[in-house]
Amino acid sequence: MSKYSMFVEWSEEDQLFLVTIPEFAQKVIMPCTHGKTREEALRNGEEVIEMYLEAWETEEELIPQPRILQIV
Q: Which domain covers residue 36, as residue numbers?
């Protein structure tokens, strides 16, 4: 599982759980994937993260860093 953030929100209009990856917001149209269940949406989100990371690495593009929660 990646270290990137995922927001999963229910869309009444679409009747789907929509996934947003905040760290990718400047590079990818959001929401970036969805699922009929929360679990499906999370799996799809992980697949999308891996897909983009592989593509950006292949294209030698700048890869956004995961956000790190720091509790002080």
A: 7-58
Task: Read off φ and ψ for residue 49, nearest 5 degrees.
Answer: -60, -50
Helix, strand, or coil (residue 38): helix
pTM of the model: 0.89
Measured between alpha carbons, how far is 29 from 44 in angstroms, rounded to an integer? 15
pLDDT in tens, 4-29: 999 999 999 999 999 999 999 999 99
Q: Name the amino acid, one letter, at 53.
A: L
Please report whether residue 64 resides in a domain: no
Is 12 part of a structural domain of the chain? yes
